[in-house]
Amino acid sequence: MEGHKKDGSYAYIRQQIYIVQTPDGKAHYEWSGIPYDATINPEEIAIQDELKRRVSIKDLKIGSNYSNNDICNAFLCSPQGGMRRSHKTNTLVLVANHVKSIFDDRWDGDIMYYTGMGLRDDQSLNFMQNKTLYVRGSGRTTGVDVHFFEVFDEAVYTYQGQVELVDDPIQEIQDDVDGNSRKVWLFPLMRKDRSTPVIPKKEIDKIFDKKVKKASKLSLEELKKRASNSSSKPGKRAATTTSYQRSPVVKAYVLKRANGVCELCEQPAPFNKKNGEPYLEVHHVKQLADGGDDTIENAVALCPNCHRRMHSLGLESDINKLTSTSKMTLL
Ligand SMILES: [Zn+2]
Ligand SMILES: [Zn+2]
Question: Is the torsion defined by CA of 115, 118, 120, 122 positive or negative?
Fold first, then answer.
């Protein structure tokens, strides 16, 4: 905060509130160029205004998205790191960043296996916030409220509620920041109210695809080693999907129209179903998820090859061919 400026005009106070000095030597407050009631302390108003915009811990809603700034303001914690201790609010904020983090934080049913702190070498339970979450020999709880966020999209933090440690930490092998194998600690956490976290299936698929892409950079030998080390029982996570109530009439019509021949490659279906009908799949040229209609003009019958081709490549030339084929049936 600065005082008055001798040469007149104004001096910055806080948040666009200025003291404006007029030529007759008197001063008044202005907020964004508008004269302000000087009987009210503008600094106080600016602070109140800022506080009003802030998210507080009790306002956080499970499943809602927040910015990193919201988190820092609510918890008064550091803007960085996966485990953020705030002494001011006696909280520990945990962030599972599925976009950026090298850690393999994952849910199995209601339990989140959260990777501890330490980017290089074997992790230690005595290191930094690992010992806030788990104090050896003194039970599992350390008297600090633990709040959990997940990041599925860059800079978007989804609140997953208050969590607590429900079992002793376990060790597993994960890559460190340089790509070398090392031992990490996983902290089994559950929501305090024991509710099940649910996220959209497409987010889970996105995380999985990212991990596959990352893993594919390893050698065949290294992948074989890791595949034999990893658990053969897959983890489970509740997910939501959107399912469309499609018209059975449209599907029946399109299959009849195709008459056993793929409408893209114009080859007969690759095999017959057990009941003898040719196997073709109905595809929406403009996908339902993108607002496409479930109509006979927008639906085509494809062989499994061409169907995957459409979803994988989505070439304009293919789209044009299918659109003109399906439109012909309107004539
Ligand atoms: Zn085909
Ligand atoms: Zn399709």
Answer: negative
Residue where the block lists tokens 């309107």: 330
The pair of three-digit structure tokens given for residue 300, joined into one six-digit string? 């085509």
Contact at 8 Å (CB) between 160 and 144? Answer: no
pLDDT tens for each residue of 151-195: 988 899 999 999 999 989 999 888 888 878 899 999 999 999 999
What pLDDT shows up at residue 53?
73
109 φ/ψ angles, rounded to the nearest 5 degrees: 65, -120
Quote the CA–CA distance of 114 and 150 in Å, as a whole number. Answer: 11
> How many whole angstroms from 25 Cα to the centroid of ligand 2?
75
Rounded to the nearest angstrom, the distance between the alpha carbon of 311 and the centre of ligand 1 is 13
Q: List domains and CATH numbers for the chain.
A: 2-53 (no CATH), 57-240 (2.30.280.10), 248-330 (1.10.30)
CA–centroid distance, residue 265 to ligand 1 (Å)? 4
- Say how many C-beta atoms besides its own lie within 10 A of residue 297's C-beta: 15
Instruction: Give the distance (Å) from ligand 2 centre to CA of residue 276.
Output: 23
Task: Quote the ligand 2 centre to 286 CA distance (angstroms).
Answer: 9
* SS3 assignment, position 261: strand
Give residue-wise pLDDT tens across range 301-317.
Answer: 999 999 999 999 999 99
